[in-house]
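Backbone-to-sequence.
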């Protein structure tokens, strides 16, 4: 039932947007987009996902999972594929947990590894956005700018609190809080040295920076010729909204958020919608290697 609601919400938002906009103009914009920039964006997005697979492999290695990088590379792209075709943006995470478990890992430890990978990625996105906001604080209306920054700081604070829970044994006593305690312990174990912390944060920021560069290329292919820093300010809040499990792979929510944010700086909504739809297509294309990996998997269902 929940999946039908998400699918329905995505369909409703996209349908509403299509009803309100000149679809012929959006379609023409997509057809006129620079093919060279779109191909470059596709390769940059694939590079971003490859580095993300490497970051995940480092996390799992620290948790004593001994698989070669090729295993995590294939699993990550299969997960990306399922993120695009399942009614939630975390369906691929469930797949990765299942695959690691099928290859001899404990389900709980596999869950912690994938969850930590998600959180570290989120921290990278938040830091990148805050850094960009410090350079372009006049880009958006003051109230919107401050609201976004307060949300970013609050999210970072919440994540750091999660990482510190292991210092308080009381959280281990109760079943409800034990999960957070154990998760915090894994954080401490993985990031016990400054080298590991800086390495993981650096990779996370690079991963999201490459994704922003891909969107930057797509935007310029349709005529949104804003500087990269403008994309670094505007895109992350929209990406954060797609993480919420309220739509089908972020469709609809992403389009609505990007249109609202880019219109604040005077960008034509038809161009933004064309960019967002093309980005969605790029995400699907960049995940297609996962289909090949899935079809050639050793396990029947993995």
């Amino acid at each position: 039932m929940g999946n039908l609601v998400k699918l329905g919400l995505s369909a409703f938002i996209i349908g509403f947007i299509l009803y309100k906009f000149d679809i012929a103009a959006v379609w023409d914009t997509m057809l006129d987009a620079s093919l060279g920039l779109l191909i470059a964006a596709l390769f940059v997005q694939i590079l971003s996902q490859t580095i993300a697979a490497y970051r995940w492999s480092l996390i799992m290695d620290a948790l004593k999972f001994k698989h070669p990088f090729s295993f995590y590379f294939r699993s990550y792209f299969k997960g990306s594929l399922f993120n695009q075709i399942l009614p939630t943006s975390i369906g691929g995470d469930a797949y990765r947990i299942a695959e690691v478990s099928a290859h001899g890992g404990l389900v709980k430890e596999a869950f912690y590894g994938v969850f930590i990978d998600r959180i570290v990625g989120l921290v990278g996105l938040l830091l990148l956005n805050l850094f960009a906001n410090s350079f372009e604080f006049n880009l958006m209306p003051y109230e919107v700018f401050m609201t976004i920054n307060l949300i970013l700081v609050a999210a970072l604070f919440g994540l750091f609190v999660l990482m510190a829970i292991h210092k308080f044994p009381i959280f281990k006593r109760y079943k409800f809080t034990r999960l957070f305690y154990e998760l915090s312990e894994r954080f401490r174990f993985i990031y016990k040295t400054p080298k590991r912390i800086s390495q993981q944060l650096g990779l996370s920021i690079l991963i999201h920076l490459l994704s922003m560069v891909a969107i930057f290329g797509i935007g310029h292919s349709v005529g949104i010729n804003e500087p990269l820093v403008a994309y670094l300010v505007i895109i992350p809040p929209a990406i954060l909204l797609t993480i919420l499990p309220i739509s089908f792979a972020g469709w609809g929510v992403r389009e609505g958020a990007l249109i609202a944010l880019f219109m604040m700086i005077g960008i034509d909504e038809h161009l933004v919608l064309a960019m967002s739809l093309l980005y969605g297509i790029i995400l699907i294309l960049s995940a297609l290697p996962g289909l090949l990996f899935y079809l050639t998997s050793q396990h029947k269902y993995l």
